[in-house]
Design goal:
2 domains, two-stranded parallel ribbon, 14 helices, globular, signal, Peptidase_S37, AB_hydrolase_fold, protease, Peptidase
Length: 432
């Protein structure tokens, strides 16, 4: 009898000890839980004060996820916390982290937000640059490591999203790790299928109204006809702004003029009536040109933070070129101009389209619950995803929208359709 009582007391003690440990674990602060994640440093910061708390994390990541001996780098991550009972929106950056603010989806879903800086950008740079480790598969593995670590704390629905190259990166991550999250929302994300995707040229030849396209051409033509005078103004402008052009001033000006239609349709905000006509002065031509297609886009110092982007564009994810035929008599180039000027002292990068081709096929067949947002006029919509018969994903195109298109940019009925799609996929009610 005594043995039975002693066993019962011991059992009760062990149960109470287990319960105490369980309650203790539950009572741990979020910061303590974050600090238990292996290979991460955590600091509480002010950040976006719309969140209950905000943290900056640095993950120690493998340069090569298939070879730990290749070395490591520190990857910056931001965490805006509301509650572990709320969904988690992951802002996957294609570049550096641009903002600590809550994004559109986080606000819409009243969700927590995890923002991941892309490898090889700003605070997530390796000590030395070895381009072989900058590819979409390695970047997706970075994001997978981070998401899986935080999913041990946040158990509700997970959504990835990103804008422009961040939208591309969101697609790539989902391709390699389709089960990391329930839903993905890439914004204005191109899927280029060639190093210089010619669909960009086709788009620029048909977008918007013909009278606008004609006026754009006439503006470019006027710039080339007045190039000698524009070069004098451009030289003073470059000195004032402290610009330096690896390709030389004249080619930089040529590129700015050729870039003009791409920039005009990409960003919007400039109307037909804003484009200078045949009576414009040379100064008016130049001022309008740099307002829409600034020469800083080709400045050596301005290019440096984006070298990783250009490496990816020229080796794996694709880009565009500039057509010279319409202005051949004013130019001294044999072929369309590419972005190889970014790496003037390096061999031309070999482009491998195989990853983009595979992802394109996957999106048209097996991909699920990816909601694509595009702007109709945006130049990057030229290479927008074509889902074909895959109705497991959805694509919404904002009429006359630019690269700035967001869910709130759409007409009201289309907004409702987008929101209802998200509600169905996430199985939750969204209160706008």
């Amino acid at each position: 009898m005594k043995k039975h009582i002693i066993k019962s007391i011991c059992l009760l003690f062990l149960l109470s000890l287990g319960l105490s440990n369980s309650l203790l674990a539950k009572s741990k602060s979020l910061e303590e839980k974050l600090k238990q994640i292996p290979n991460v440093s955590v600091q509480k910061i002010k950040g976006d004060t719309t969140f209950a708390s905000y943290f900056e994390l640095y993950f120690t990541q493998a340069l090569d996820h298939n070879n730990p001996d290749a070395g490591t780098f520190q990857q910056r991550v931001l965490l805006g916390h509301h509650s572990i009972d709320r969904p988690m929106v992951v802002e996957i950056e294609g570049y550096q982290i641009w903002s600590e603010k809550a994004g559109e989806l986080s606000k819409l879903l009243k969700a927590n937000q995890l923002t991941i800086e892309h490898r090889y950008f700003k605070n997530s740079m390796p000590d030395s640059i070895d381009w072989q480790y900058l590819n979409i598969k390695q970047a997706a593995a970075d994001q997978h490591v981070i998401i899986q670590a935080l999913k041990k704390i946040y158990k509700e629905k997970w959504i990835t999203t990103g804008i422009s190259k961040g939208g591309q990166t969101t697609m790539y991550h989902r391709y390699f790790y389709p089960n990391d999250v329930e839903v993905s929302v890439p914004y204005v994300a191109p899927l280029n299928l060639a190093r210089e995707d010619k669909r960009i040229h086709e788009h620029l030849a048909s977008v918007g109204k013909k009278e606008t396209r004609d006026k754009i051409y006439q503006f470019q033509l006027a710039c080339f006809k007045n190039k000698e005078k524009l070069l004098t103004i451009a030289e003073s402008h470059a000195k004032e702004k402290k610009y330096s052009f690896l390709m030389g001033l004249e080619k930089a000006l040529d590129l700015s003029i050729l870039e003009y239609p791409f920039a005009y349709w990409q960003w919007g905000g400039i109307t037909f009536y804003n484009i200078p006509d045949e009576n414009a002065s040379v100064n008016e031509l130049f001022e309008h040109l740099i307002k829409v297609s600034g020469m800083d886009f080709f400045d050596e110092i301005s290019l440096k933070p984006s070298l990783a982007f250009y490496h990816q564009a020229l080796s794996e994810i694709g880009m565009y070129s500039y057509e010279i035929v319409p202005f051949k008599e004013y130019l001294n180039y044999k072929d369309d101009l590419t972005f190889d000027h970014v790496f003037p002292n390096e061999p031309i990068r070999k482009f491998d389209a195989s990853s983009m081709v595979k992802i394109n096929k996957w999106l048209q067949t097996d991909a699920e619950k990816i909601l694509f947002i595009y702007g109709e006029y945006d130049t990057w919509s030229a290479t927008a995803v074509n889902l074909k018969e895959n109705n497991k994903c959805q694509k919404f195109v904002n009429p006359e929208g630019s690269h700035k298109t967001r869910i709130k940019s759409f007409p009201e009925e289309m907004q409702k359709e987008i929101v209802s799609t998200l509600e169905a996929w996430l199985d939750l009610k969204i209160q706008k």
